[in-house]
Amino acid sequence: MLVLAIDTSANASAALLESTDSTVTVAGSFTSSVGNDHSEVLSPAIESLLAQAGGRIPDAIAVGVGPGPFTGLRVGLATARTLGFVWGIGVHGVMSLDAVALDAVAQGPAGEFTVAIDARRKELYWARYDNTGVLVGGPYVTVAEELPAGPVYGAGGGLYAERLAAVGAEVVPGFESAHPGAVSLGTRAVRALASGQPLLGTEPLYLRESDAKVPAVMKGKLL
Amino acid sequence: MSLSAPLVLGIESSCDETGVGIVRGTELLVNAVASSMEEHVRFGGVIPEIASRAHLDAFVPTLESALKDAGVTLAEIDAIAVTSGPGLSGALMVGVSAAKALALATGKPLYAINHLVAHVGVGILDGGELPENLGALLVSGGHTEILQVNSLTSDVRLLGATIDDAAGEAYDKVARLLGLGYPGGPVIDRIAKEGDPKAIRFPRGLTLPKFVGTEENPGRHRHDFSFSGLKTAVARCVEQYQKRGEEVPVADIAASFQEAVVDVITSKAVRACRENGLTNLLLGGGVAANSRLRELLAARCASAGITLRVPPHSLCTDNGAMVAALGAQLVDDGVLPTGLGFSTDSGQPVSLISLAV
Q1: Which domain holds residue B304?
Q2: Contact B105 A83 (CB under 8 A)
Q3: Are B183 and B296 within one domain?
Q4: Of A40, A77, A87, A211, which to mutate for an interface test with B (greatest number of B Cβ within 10 Å)?
Q5: Which of A91, B35, B47, B221 could crosslink B211 through cysteines, CB 3.0-4.6 Å?
């Protein structure tokens, strides 16, 4: 089975994964080097990944549904939903932090751990996992001090290492700048599909409402 | 590729309307539009983040219904066109991302086109080929522009534009001040009919000689608009009544405000046409529905010997059919498609009718 994975919760990334009953092979992958070019680079990257794979149409799409900055996140979701519609294939949502969790599990954590990435506005998007990578809490968006004690994987940890240390949360070396990426996200999706575990829909996990405030005059107050 | 009646699918997401239209040459097949307007009502104006969220959810269903209603398949489409700007960045990116995915998955050529020129291009769907010596007046919640259209596909120039608020934005803000809700255009138009347009003399923006100059020696803002001062003048006026404990004469203020907007728009548009040899004028944008604007513009165009053309309302407001219509003209004229690598341009100038490869 050929799976196209897309994640735009951090830098734009895409990957083509070939899976059999027991193995997952990365046929090709792309990650943008900058964080603000999602809508420019994602489709051309997918086009060249498909061309490298001989123009085969994927059997399924896995897309990161966040949490992540809204505009970039929507680029991935709009792309995935539209590709799925045209090709007539399933589009499966994966919580983006799960991608970092998969990489964390490869390090053999002793117990529960936290994955955290930058949510801007001095906050973090984060979630809790058990040592096999199963989600046990979140995703949340809070300040660093709200994170539980214990190991923290992901760029959010690197960003607030001192504040996290103050509440007993330790940033794991090597993961200070780790972001969700399409290879890990796709791998997680392929394994879930193979073992019959449910994946998510493609609704974005914004975790925040728009900032807009209803103006006083709209509440019936003249001037 | 040059085709006489190309089948083109157009996508629009520059503000709060998610539009997918399909045309065959100059023939309109379908104009599917989903609007998030209801979600903006309580704010009294379009909230970009809310509009962007709505685009994401509306796109695929709107595409699906457009294809179904037009009775065409994606395989039959000759080209895809999408608005790349001007507009709200976050909103544009949803339509552009979807359009790129559509082009990628179908292998069809993709054109990144100018929203304002599309408002002009839509004219071909109602009355066929556009006339020579054409000007365009675009009035909406996001735009107020006068364009000179030498060639729809290769030469469009900006003669004048608002330097602050768009006319429709001024309507929304004044409606808020008067407690009339959102959107402001239709309600002010209705209430203005019960008021005296001469009750209060509101300022006509950028009409002083120092801005306008003369035909031989034009001022810096001869054909430009400004509505921000007008909105403030209305606010001060309302305050005066409230301070005196008097009832605010809402109908008279609405009528006088509307007269100020429409007077300056129509007089500047007609003057711009006259001085540039434009004998035809196309009106576009959501405010084209305004009854007083249509009435006064028709009268002033007639006096000046200018033939006025106003497409039906559903083609004047933001929609995908206009994007498809311009796309079909570009295909027809052999303009090369843009491809997948372009960026959205929230300030795309009218000189960029479609983005180069």
Answers
A1: 134-310
A2: yes
A3: yes
A4: A40
A5: B221
